[in-house]
Amino acid sequence: MSRLPSAELLEEVCVRFILTLPATELESFERLLFSIEQAWWHYEDHVREKPENAALKSLTLKEFTGLMFEKVPGLEPFRGSLEEIYANFNKYKRTVPVRGAIMLTPDCTKCLLVRGYKKDAGWGFPRGKLSKDETDAQCAVREVLEETGLDITGGLRESDFIDVQLGDQDTRLFIVQNVPETTHFAPHVRYEIGAFGWYLIEHLPATYDESKQAFVNEQGGRHKFFNVWPYVKPLRAWIKKRRKGGQPSRSAVPTPQPTAAGVAAAAAALPAADLAAAATAAGAARSAAAVAALTAADVAAVAALTAADVAAAAAGGAAAAAAPGKAIREFKFDRGPILQALKF
């Protein structure tokens, strides 16, 4: 029978993913929920994979967020606004710029697509949301590395890209040439990418109506290209112009290859590699174990907090608890109750 994560486990997650964040990351619910989302992935990908946690229930992000609001000191005054906060977060996510890459074979006839983890998931180009203080190219390199294990730094040319506006979200995919079909792909993230495939560009849908048609493989599975078709026409135009010599050719473009670090990171994602992260005990021992699971940099960040910082945070926490009607837009996460509980 499945069970919910304990308060001790949630406390460890809170310390690891929230308490050590810079103050600027805790000044809005949107930023806070991005951190909670990272904690949720950690719970699903690593914590639940450990033999001793086999009975832990798989949670949706919304369910996990609800538990965090119930258990984390400082969030109590906002529990009644969780539905509004979560809805605003999802709306905000749809406005965050997306960056990624379209990888082409040397003859520019095929492009690489990735499929979501579930068999009925749609296909698309490797891409993801732009992080704070990250350049477009840096984001594209990071997302491709996470989703495919391929470092495209040497093959990415910042002048070669396609921009597409999808509702309120602007997307930019860099075009990376000379990727062999024999390239081995190994995603760094778990439970996010289920398959890779090279597709003939001329066979991909180029309009919304075409994307609604049934694309069935030899095994009878339907391929969904709703996230692909907006880029196909501009991609074909880019390739046509390149073949006609309309753009200068880059000399000696390095062929991107999977890195040794990528293979090591994929291996490190195995459950056994994260055994130190789920210390659970009672009282002070529990708190010490939670802190021990942090990296050296995390511990240093917490240790740098002065007694005055803790006192000021605690005072702010008392004020927040006394004002449950505080406007969501004025939210600022309070570390005080957590710091006092951990007794640094």
Q: What characteristic shape results from the CA principal axes?
A: elongated
Assembly context of the chains: single chain
Kindly identify the CATH topology of the largest domain. Answer: Nucleoside Triphosphate Pyrophosphohydrolase
Helix content: 25-40%
Task: Give your account of this protein's structure.
This protein folds into two domains: 7-92 and 274-342, Arc Repressor Mutant, subunit A (Orthogonal Bundle); 97-268, Nucleoside Triphosphate Pyrophosphohydrolase (Alpha-Beta Complex), CATH 3.90.79.10. 40% of the residues lie in helices and 14% in strands. The chain has helices spanning 7-19, 29-47, 61-71, 82-93, 136-148, 208-211, 229-243, 260-268, 283-292, 296-303, 307-321, 336-342, and strands at 98-103, 110-116, 123-124, 127-129, 150-151, 161-166, 169-176, 193-200, 215-216, 222-223, 257-258. The protein has a four-stranded mixed β-sheet. Helix 1 crosses helix 9 (283-292). Belongs to the Nudix hydrolase family. DCP2 subfamily.
Please give a quick description of this structure.
One of its GO terms (biological process) is deadenylation-dependent decapping of nuclear-transcribed mRNA. The protein is an alpha+beta fold and 344 residues long.
